[in-house]
Design brief:
The structure is a single chain. This protein has 3 helices and 8 strands; from the N terminus they run H-H-E-E-E-E-E-E-H-E-E. By secondary structure, it is of the alpha+beta class. It has 2 domains: 33 residues; 143 residues, Jelly Rolls (Sandwich), CATH 2.60.120.
Length: 185
């Protein structure tokens, strides 16, 4: 049997000199793999004072208020493209009314987002609505992923209001929505 010293003499030139480089190569591959798994850049995006409207007559039960919003990715990051967006989450949603009866005739709200090439996503809810409130904050759905909606040029905001009773006139509320957008450079 060969001793360790004798065995090292039997190694070829390539085995002696390139084996350490092979270890370094694998280490570099592992480090690059870890770097590619890092989190993306996170920024907030806000839709402020958008009017959501349902045209009357409105009936007892769920009625849909809606608005369209054009998405400007350059307002998030100059040169940002839809392909760079990894994740979009709703972080805060508030709805305000100027109606003197406040939200007293509304049982609950369900907030959804959709667009031409994305499926509808339920993103927030408030049930029940506190009486005598002119502004309410909806509970954001943590599992709602809205990236597909933000990859479109325009999205539709849908607020389903479960009304108590009927009314002939239009119904308009103002919405403010905050999102956390994760994207890669």
């Amino acid at each position: 049997m060969l001793s360790k010293f004798e065995w090292s003499k039997k190694l070829t030139f390539a085995q002696k000199h390139y084996y350490p480089m092979k270890k370094i190569f694998y280490l570099l591959i592992a480090l690059l793999g870890l770097a590619s798994c890092s989190d993306g850049i996170k920024k907030s995006y806000t839709i402020e004072s958008i009017e959501l409207t349902a045209e009357g007559p409105l009936f007892d039960g769920p009625n849909t208020l809606q608005a369209s919003h054009s998405i400007d990715l350059n307002s998030i990051e100059n040169g940002l493209t839809a392909e760079q967006i990894e994740s979009v989450k709703l972080t805060k949603a508030t709805v305000t009314t100027t109606d003197s009866s406040a939200f007293n005739l509304v049982r609950n709200f369900v907030l959804q987002f959709t667009s031409s090439d994305a499926k509808m996503q339920k993103a927030g809810v408030l049930n029940p609505i506190p009486k005598n409130s002119a502004t309410v904050e909806l509970t954001a759905a943590a599992e709602a992923e809205l990236a597909d909606n933000f990859k479109q040029s325009e999205m539709i905001i849908i607020l389903d209001a479960d009304l108590e009773g009927e009314r002939e006139d239009n119904l308009t509320y103002t919405g403010n929505f905050e999102f956390e957008i994760t994207y890669k450079k």
